[in-house]
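Comment thread on ticket #2218

A.B. wrote:
> Attaching the input chain for the structure job we discussed in standup.
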Amino acid sequence: QLYLFGGFYLDNDMVYEWPDNLAGSNAVLNLKSSNYPMKLQQRDEVVVYARDKTLYRNTPGFARERVVHEHGSNILNPSLSRNGIDVCFTDSNGDLYVFNMVSAKLTDTGTSSSLCQWGPNNEPDRIYYLAGTNTHAKLARVDRDGSNLSMITEVNSFDFKNFQILGNGSINLVGKSLLAGVAGERVLLKDSTGAIKTIDSDGDNETEVIEASVKAKYPQVYGNSIYYLSSDTSSNGTTNLFRADLNGNDREQITFI
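C.D. wrote:
> Ran it. Output below, let me know if you need it in another format.
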């Protein structure tokens, strides 16, 4: 009796993670497995990056660099899929590609882009991207095989220079400055450390206004104040509502629950 834990399977010419474990005789399991080249084996957590025309994979500690793809032009902004086997990237010609690190298959999506990222947890096979090759562009999405292209109509009246897709489906967007040479609106962001920051809509002048140690929750701006919930700075140790000015100063607790 032999056992296989995890792996991949092929469906409609696309590679997916195998969700179940297998058990059986050597003869049976040999029909369900094959030997991939060492450079394509998925045995560690993976980070991907590019230098010029070469796409690399490595461990998070950057201890085992491997070349996984040599492209015809420079590779820009590679993004690793949530299952760790696909990479989307744009090249210096502005074309959007998907490279599968298990099958070594390269897919030309037939679209132009300056930046791409994989969809949230409920859309693992979808790619979000900035359509076209300009510095600022509309937000769109497409399946990893190049099908089902659509614009994100909810924000289609705006141009963006950067974005981030979160696993829960939220999208952080950095917009184009309202006027050339003018910063435009300030955007309120909460980073991965829990700090609350403000940033110009063109991505410049990032300023921390509420430090991570406050553990502020649900920050919102009303008028000229930032409102947030916190228990760590509360006078009675329970979650209460706080207010600060837009620079993070003049903080006050306004509920005492």
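A.B. wrote:
> Thanks. Noting for the ticket: Helices lie at 26-30.
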